[in-house]
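Retry 2 of 3 after timeout on previous attempt. Resubmitting structure tokens to design endpoint.
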């Protein structure tokens, strides 16, 4: 497991296990720390609180979390869940609600809503510069 600890230090988030007895050891090495889990929970909660209000970002004090920042913390929550450090029930509804709300409001390349009744539309050429 020395190699796994070294790999985790370099940023790896998992390893292949040749035998089922290796799984708990790998989970211990690659699971996020309680401090990382707490931070990720806090950031995901801040974002999920802001979504129903129609805000694109949430925050408290000096911490701001938007959709881009949320993508940093989602894998931490997923690793915590996958390694048994976080219960499925705690995150199944809140995280999914944030993800659904975020993707439902994502505009297309030109700003039209993806659910626009016009499936195809023409893009206007940018104005000519003089």
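Retry 2 succeeded. Sequence:
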């Amino acid at each position: 497991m020395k190699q796994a600890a070294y790999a985790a230090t370099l940023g790896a988030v998992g390893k292949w296990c040749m035998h089922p007895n290796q799984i708990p050891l790998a989970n211990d090495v690659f699971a996020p720390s309680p401090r990382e889990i707490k931070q990720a929970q806090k950031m995901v909660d801040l974002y999920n609180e802001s979504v129903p209000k129609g805000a694109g970002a949430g925050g408290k004090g000096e911490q701001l979390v938007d959709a881009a920042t949320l993508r940093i913390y989602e894998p931490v929550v997923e690793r915590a869940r996958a390694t048994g450090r976080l219960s499925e029930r705690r995150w199944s509804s809140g995280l999914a609600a944030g993800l659904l709300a975020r993707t439902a409001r994502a505009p297309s390349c030109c700003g039209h809503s993806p659910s626009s009744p016009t499936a195809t539309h023409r893009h206007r050429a940018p104005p000519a510069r003089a």
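Attempt log closed. The chain has two domains: 1-30, 32-104.
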